[in-house]
Amino acid sequence: MEDYAVIFDHVSKIYTLKSNDKKHKGKQFYALKDVSFKIPVGEVVGILGTNGSGKSTMSVILSGISEPEEGKITVNGEQALIAINTGLNQQLTGLENIQLKGALLGLKKKQVQKIVDDVIEFAELGDFLYQPVKKYSSGMKSRLGFSINLALDPDIIVVDEALSVGDKGFAKKCLDKMTELKKSGKTIIFISHSLPQVLSFCDTAIWLEGGILKEYGEIKTVASHYDEYVKELNALSKKEQKKLLNKKFEQRIIKEKKKESFLNRLFER
C-alpha cells in the first residue's frame, strides 16, 4: 500500500445542477463516475480530457479539498493543490496570505519566515507582495500560489492549469523546478490543456472523458489516443459536436436522486 501515493477505488463525485434549464435544474449528475486507479510514489502523471471531463473535480479531490460521494481514496503523504486563485484570500496582501497559510498549518515563526523568503526568491513579485491579491493579474496569482505550495514542500503536488497563465519565462521556471522535484522523488499530478507540456514532462497519463476513466498508461500511448479523439471531435460540425456533448451530458445525469453528503448517510445509520 505504501508503494502508492494515491489510490482511487471506485470513486464517484456527484453534484446538483444549478441550471436555467428547467429540464435539468435540481437534478444530480456524475462529475466523476466509478473511477479507479493507483499512482505509484514518485510518478509524474498527466491528466488529459476535454472541457467538462472532470479534470478540475479530480484535482480538488486529489488535493483533499473535496470528498467523493462514493468509493474510497487512499493518500499516502501531504498533498497540495497549485491552481489559479485556489486558497488565496483576495483581500489580504501576498505576504499576509503566506503568513495565514503558515498559521493555519501551525508552523512556527521561523518556519513561516523561511517560506516568505522562498516565495520572495521564486515568485519574483517585487513590491506586489505587499499589495492585496485582488489587485493581482491571474498570472501573478498563479506565481504566488505556486511559490507558496512549493515552499511548503508537500509529498504530492497537484498542478491544475497553473502554468496556463502569465509569461512563458515563469512557466519554464516552474517546469524546471518541477523537474527538480521529479528527480527528488515527489509525486506530481499535472493537469494542463497543453498536450506538448504534458508529453514533455509526464511519465504516464490519465485520460478522463465525460467523468469516466477512459485510459491510464504510458504517456505517449495515452496522449496519442487522446489526440486522435480531439482531432475527430474537432472535425465534426458545430451541430454534431453539440449533439455529441449533449448525449454525453445526459448519460451523466442520475435518474434517481442519491443522498448528497456523507452526513446524510451518517445520520441514517
TrEMBL record:
Entry keyword annotation includes Cell membrane: no
Domain ABC transporter, first and last residues per copy: 17-235
SUPFAM superfamilies the UniProt entry points to: P-loop containing nucleoside triphosphate hydrolases
Taxonomy, superkingdom: Bacteria
InterPro entries: AAA+_ATPase, ABC_transporter-like_ATP-bd, ABC_transporter-like_CS, ABC_transpr_TagH-like, Bact_Polysacc_Export_ATP-bd, P-loop_NTPase
GO cellular component, one term: membrane
Pfam families, alphabetized: ABC_tran
GO molecular function: ABC-type transporter activity; ATP binding; ATP hydrolysis activity
Keyword entries, A-Z: ATP-binding, Nucleotide-binding, Transport
Family: Belongs to the ABC transporter superfamily.
Name recorded for this polypeptide: ATP-binding cassette domain-containing protein
Species of provenance: Floccifex porci
